[in-house]
Design goal:
By secondary structure, the protein is α/β, with parallel strands linked by helices. The chain has four helices and seven strands. A seven-stranded parallel sheet has the order 3-4-2-5-6-1-7, with helices on both faces. Strand 5, helix 3 and strand 6 form a beta-alpha-beta unit. Helix 1 crosses helix 2. It starts with a strand and ends in an 8-residue tail after the last strand.
């Protein structure tokens, strides 16, 4: 069963997604392959995230692209608008899925089969908080164990 993490009370989801991605990507042990990450969100969020990924740290480079880019198969961080994009079948990414959006995935069983870790980012925006609560309930009702990381508490910041 997949590990599903809810990171909530996030003030800036783009900056937070960059820090979390850097942490996950750099956590690979020496000699081990880097962990592949798929980031799902709407077009506007992904374009903003793309810009922030290029500029958020002068000393870190997080190689990323959109899923339909010809380099996607070789790029460890891939962004897509759709949980079931046909292009997902063309890439080997199957480590971590980070969800920046508000919609519940339609086929959770397929996602948890492919991705052993799913991270849901929930901001302080009221609409996003309500949508996050609904996703939380839906995952719980499907029997998944959920892990919570409240970003308003200093000890849980990434």
């Amino acid at each position: 069963m997949a590990r599903i993490d809810f990171h909530f009370n996030v003030n800036d989801k783009y900056e937070y997604a960059c820090r979390l991605t850097r942490k996950i990507w750099s956590a690979s042990a020496a000699g081990e392959p880097v962990r592949n990450i798929v980031m799902v969100g709407n077009t506007a969020d992904l374009k903003k995230l793309d810009a922030v990924l290029w500029s958020f740290s002068p000393s870190d480079f997080l190689p990323h692209c959109f899923i339909d880019d010809e380099a996607a198969v070789d790029t460890p961080i891939v962004m897509t608008e759709d949980f079931v994009s046909p292009s997902l079948a063309n890439i080997p990414h199957a480590d971590v899925l980070i969800h920046l959006g508000m919609n519940m995935p339609k086929d959770v069983a397929t996602l948890v089969e492919r991705f052993p870790r799913i991270v849901e980012l929930v901001t302080v925006n009221e609409a996003e908080r309500l949508a996050g609560r609904e996703r939380y309930k839906a995952y719980r009702d499907l029997g998944h164990e959920l892990f919570n990381f409240d970003q308003s508490k200093p000890e849980s910041k990434s």
